[in-house]
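haha ok so turns out i had the wrong file open the whole time. this is the CORRECT one, sorry everyone. sequence first:
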Amino acid sequence: MENLSTITTFFGWCTTINIGLLTYSSIMIIILNAPVKKLHAKMTHISPEKLNEMYFNFLGNYKLGIFIFNLVPYCALKIMA
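then structure:
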């Protein structure tokens, strides 16, 4: 049972850290929208108008990944315990 507790703790911390990174990324994109778009447009040669859509898709996919690979296993392990 100790192993199950360790895995549950691991998934709990993974979820917490990833949600923190998602929040930080979202806030930085909102606050620093113009400088970030300018930098990414220069680096990737993608138009700034297209970058908003790409940021939105990235954050949405990252959130889904957190739910599928971190939060759902954590909840399942909590139910099992």
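The mean pLDDT is 95.
again sry for the mixup
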